[in-house]
Fold:
Amino acid sequence: AKNKPASWVSDGAATLCQNMKAKGIEVFTITVDLPSGPTANAMQACASGSDNAYQVELETGNELQNVMMDIVLKVSPVRMTM
Structure:
């Protein structure tokens, strides 16, 4: 978005998120070390639901790995075998 105002970028991202969700795509978002504010709010709104929006503070190396595992478990079909 070179030479475009910041609102154009956020409007474009919002439209992209809305279009993906309208097509039935489950959207997950992850923000890393991002303070609350307009960008964090946009990422929250982009996700398919509040359980799909992750805000990670990288105080430990395992936090992002735990988020990724949580997403994998949400999107992978659960199979039980006996």
